[in-house]
Design brief:
Layout (H helix, E strand, L loop, with lengths): L6 E4 L6 H8 L5 E2 L7 H6 L13 H10 L1 H4 L5 H8 L7 H15 L4 E5 L7 H7 L4 E6 L2 H11 L6 H20 L6 E5 H6 L1 H12 L40 H4 L2 H17 L11 H43 L2
Parallel strand pairs: 1-3, 1-4, 2-3, 4-5
Helix pairs in contact: 3-14, 5-6, 8-9, 9-13, 13-14
């Protein structure tokens, strides 16, 4: 198979990106590790590793990588990344990051690698510069169904309006950054179309990525949960089913009040992506209530993030001590 450029599957959370990941990973040539999340963080710390984006202090880079909890979920020895990196003369930080993915692919007997981290929909511009040949698949799902899924998780969001705000921001930002790259590097895919015509849409994705279509991709449910980190299997249990329409349906599962608030926040973006509004034009009271909910959400998010950051920093210090032992 010709050399395949790296690719990134991105999108708003709960938009079906995990389904697409387990489908593509069934391909005999393609490896996609669990979500990485660490690329922007490593780039932000680039001065620790060298100047001008060069990787002049690889030991520091490997220590930081080994201390990342997301990298640990790959179950890949840091020595495998070091071995991959030693094949590169005068590496850059981007090549150091690529070495981690290449090592994962090699460990799984695959020749090509991709990444599925929905949050990277906010970082398309950065990642596209780090990997100038990388391609991006932006998976978009009706935001009203996304809101139902997000609310079911009962974490940050308790109102549909706040989920609408996040969805609208991410899909609009992802489209703007992706279209700036051109059709050769950016593909938009609707989740509903993937459910309606799985074979046709997967063939389109494979052609875009430059990989040959394989029928086995469509049998994603075989061992799907085994390819998900154990702690995440609860929220992805439906992957064990064939692609099924109607598991989330805002038409029957969202109240009229929630629907009106959601569309008052994200109605324009809904229409921009080809979905039709269901509620009539929202009144002043509905718009005001939705606005107050979103303001309250960001205040709660900031407070919660502070507490989470404290706990994460404590755990990170513990992981860094372990990483220093592993990378010597």
């Amino acid at each position: 198979m010709p050399e395949v450029p790296p690719f990134f599957v991105v999108g708003s959370a709960r938009s079906g990106t995990t389904l697409l990941r387990v489908m593509l990973e069934r391909h005999p040539d393609v490896a996609i590790p669990p979500e990485s999340h660490f690329i922007p963080k490593l780039w932000a710390n680039r001065d620790r590793y060298g100047s001008g984006g060069r990787l002049e202090r690889p030991k520091e880079f490997l220590r930081d990588l080994a201390s990342e909890s997301r990298f640990r979920s790959w179950n890949l020895p840091i020595q495998a990344v070091r071995d991959e990196l030693e094949r590169v003369e005068a590496p850059t930080l981007a090549q150091g990051i690529e070495a981690a993915f290449a090592a994962f692919a090699r460990a799984n007997g695959k020749s090509a690698w991709g990444d599925k981290t929905p949050k990277y929909v906010d970082h398309i511009e950065l990642i596209s510069k780090l990997f100038p040949t990388a391609r991006f698949v932006h998976l978009v799902r009706d935001g009203r169904d996304v809101a139902l899924s997000v609310l079911d998780m009962e974490r940050l969001h308790v109102h549909a309006a706040t989920a609408a705000k996040v969805w609208a921001r991410q899909v609009a930002g992802g489209r703007a950054a992706g279209r700036a790259l051109g059709d050769a590097r950016y593909l938009e895919l609707r989740y509903e179309d993937l459910l309606e015509d799985g074979p046709g849409e997967i063939r389109r994705v494979c052609a875009f990525l430059g990989i040959p279509f394989r029928q086995v991709i469509l049998k994603h449910e075989e061992g799907a949960l085994e390819r998900i980190p154990e702690r995440q299997r609860g929220m992805h249990r439906r992957l064990a089913l064939p692609p099924t329409k109607g598991l989330r349906d805002w038409r029957s599962q969202m109240s009229s009040g929630e629907l009106a608030e959601w569309e008052s926040v994200a109605g324009p973006q809904l229409e921009a992506f080809g979905y039709r509004r269901a509620a009539s034009a929202p009144g002043l009271f509905t718009r005001l209530k939705a606005k107050l909910r979103t303001v309250g959400f960001w205040a709660r998010y900031a407070r919660g993030r502070g507490a989470v950051t404290f706990r994460r920093r404590r755990r990170k210090r513990e992981r860094e001590r372990e990483a220093r032992e592993a990378v010597r």
